[in-house]
User: Fold this.
Amino acid sequence: MSTVRLILALHNHQPVGNFDGVFEASYRDSYAPFLEVLGSYPDIPFALHTSGPLLEWLAEHHPEYIAQVRGLVETGRVEILGGGFYEPIMTMIPHHDRVGQIRDYSSYLEQLFPTKVRGMWVAERVWEQHLVAAITEAGIEYTILDDFHFQHAGITGDDLFGYYLTEDEGRLLKIFPGSEILRYTVPFQEPHATYEFLRRLAERRPGATVVFADDGEKFGSWPETFDHVYTHGWLKRFCDMIMGNRDWLEVTTLARAVDSTLPLGKVYVPDGSYREMTEWVLPPSLHQDYERAKAHVAASELADEIKPFFRAGGFWRNFKARYPESDEMYARMLGISRRLAAASAREGADPDYLEIARRELYRGQCNCPYWHGAFGGLYLPHLRNAVYRSLITAHNALDDAEAKTGPRVALEAGDFNLDARQEVKLENEGLVVLVRPAQGGHIYELDVRQTAINVLATLQRRPEAYHQAIANAIHPENNDQAQGDGPASIHDRIIFKQEGLDQLLVYDRHPRKALVDHFYPIDVTLDDLAACRDVERGDFVTGTYLARAKRDSRRVALVMERPGHADGQTVRIKKSIALAAGSPVLEVHYELFDLPRETCLHFAVELNLAAMAGHADDRYYSDAHGTRLGVLDSRIDLAHTEGIALTDEWLDLSVGLSWSRPGGLWCYPIETVSQSEGGFEGVYQSSAVVPHWHVTADETGRWDLLIRLALEPFRPTVITLPRQDESLARV
Assistant:
């Protein structure tokens, strides 16, 4: 009789918006060869979770893979696990969306494969106890968390090998602890390490059930793992080890374990996620303190006794506090969800458009761009852009569902970003503009609806805990790594994907948004700005503007005003943002008052434009005559100009900027240093466009300026610039 049950559960995932080449490479290096090897071991069943974005891609591009999995399901070799359709962090989305995502994905899976979906994968194992209600309401019986979760509920040692009941509002859910030891031995150590762990467990705890549950990409897609797992035969040796010990080792599935064994008891699991996630969410300074404390614990003679009580203490939701950009996406997503729920409850809304909006909302809830750790996540522009693309598409579909068509314009005030302050939304049929008067009067989201792009999906450069590893790695004595018998886990790797990363460790002093108002010294340079030197001489950058709205049937405007200081002088800025029905142009009118007659001030308006790759021939700056000035990661320093255009032909997007007074222009790239599975790398985030003027007052102490932003699908046309003698739009 078998004395230990082993459950192998794989989680295969690619996020919404990832590149086709990444999908294809992961299929080639991981998903397909894993099935090929396991196909030759008919006595080894396993559980398989494939996220919705990946499964939809596989169904379209590799139907043979779907057929192969279907065959394994039919023969009882594979148990299919469900989850949220587009892999959301369940604690991040409303209850009705949790239930909807799980139900929709179970339905999709049950149509694709001949099976009943009973269990699910919890994305990133981010857990809060109230999730039990939504998970069970959606028809799920059991799931997997990490043993790390259970340890902080007081369950340790050999009590971690089985499954438990948990409960919320009278609803019962079964939860399995996944073994952290196996997450680090499989496949990074030789199969004998897993054998020794399981054999000792069998001797101590006959009848135990142990779960390996982790990313399928570690079997071929993670760096160096393809050769290790397949070329050098690790997976075959692992399967052979299992087959050679079937007299005491039984490989089974979650469903069979639930049906054939009793729960070990009841537990209420504290809020948490997997251990590394609780570390990544910590602020950098606290993370470094935590690493030192962890090293002390590991070196202690009492390490085994202390470890169950030692935790990083980070809480997943605080990614939204650490990264305002994540919080902005989250708030936008919640707004779409609430609007969809309200539209669905009203009579007369078009159900087909409501369904489009629901599916795009669910896509926009894909978790990866909302956080950052060893995987690029939030730092990857194409993933952030994909979230906004889905949310903007859902916004458009809701307009269609409510029969909002033709030229129109509206202005609405509300707390759109959940900061307890009032923001303002200007919207017509082509643009959505979100403005934050309480923080510098910045535009923080600017959506081009036809192409579903937020051109302000930017990212501020800020310190990260792993930046210290980059600095340390410059010194060879800090670059020692213990070598095991397989490739290092991605959590332990220090690899530079390019040179000069330490030169990119520059940190911003303000959010990278649009209409950031600066006063600089007369002699400031482009190098000063690019290096983030402290050259600010005003207090308008993040200062609070008082705001009022002006509306009529064809045009709306937000008028913001703030008294402040510039270069030791008292001045007042009034800036007005106007949008008209039927127009792709945003007009911004600046008026500076109370200027000193005898002093020249250096005024600049910063706009950070994203959603475009930095170094590609089809993504470039051009002047008013269509002459290209360089790709988008170029530095540009012009002494006298009246405008510039940024074009991304691949995204079919053109942003034309023009201003009524000739002035200087600085442009430079915003690049971050982030970590990913492959190592540390620089990532282009946006282009800073900073027109600037030497301001001298007229006889009344006043100076004014009109800036126009034209946001349209790409067309190779010449920009029409306003002339200073044109009548400035007054709002």
